[in-house]
Design a protein that fits this description.
alpha+beta, three-stranded antiparallel β-sheet, two-stranded antiparallel sheet, 6 helices, 9 strands, about 30% helix
């Protein structure tokens, strides 16, 4: 048995392998296999020593900033794998809450009703909470998007000195607001797109 980290990765990868072929990268006509970042949420409880993948997603794009205003809430803005996995996990938790609310037994291994003093402390609007025994793990095949991966990139450089940022004469500043991959890794707070394929 490997480390906990390896076990988490194995559970997510095994779940991914069960998906139909249409849900996976394909080979190009030249035989080169495409790839895409994969993320998953794995849980375990104190009662159950096993790991279960409850959310899985692939993805590597983000809606361009100039399209966000036109989306009007009807278009997903960020479809990076880790964001989609978190959204899928939220859906899983909502389904658990719905099941608990409609259950005659009132039991779930993942969520529970809040105690009366917990509800009143937060204004009574959140009747459920995650069970304290639940352990939640996230697997990402690539470093998460944006600033979360910049420290890894800086540490991997032979010379971690920040790259000079182009002036508006060199390159339009609009292109700096939506960088490909990990360009200009010292700049933080910028939307970044992951490399793929």
């Amino acid at each position: 048995m490997g480390s906990l980290e390896d076990q988490i990765a194995d559970v997510v990868l095994a779940k991914f392998e069960t998906l139909p072929a249409k849900s996976k990268p394909t080979n190009d006509t030249d035989g080169i296999r495409n790839w895409v970042p994969l993320s998953g949420i794995v849980i375990s409880t104190a009662e159950d020593t096993g790991l279960t993948c409850v959310a899985l997603a692939t993805g590597m794009k983000c809606l361009p900033v100039h399209k966000v205003k036109d989306a009007q809430g009807f278009v997903l803005h960020d479809w990076h794998a880790e964001i989609l996995a978190i959204r899928a996990f939220n859906h899983f938790l909502m389904e658990e809450c719905f099941g608990l609310a409609n259950s005659k037994t009132g039991c779930s291994p993942y969520v529970r009703w809040r105690e009366e003093d917990e509800v009143s402390a937060i204004g009574g609007i959140q009747p459920f909470t995650i069970n304290e025994s639940l352990k939640i793990h996230m697997y990402c095949s690539e470093a998460p998007c944006g600033d979360a991966s910049m420290e890894l990139t800086m540490n991997a450089q032979e010379d971690p000195t920040p790259w000079p940022v182009p002036t508006s004469a060199d390159e339009s500043m609009d292109s700096l607001s939506n960088l490909k991959g990990r360009q200009y890794f010292s700049e933080l707070g910028i939307v970044r797109r992951k490399p793929g394929r």
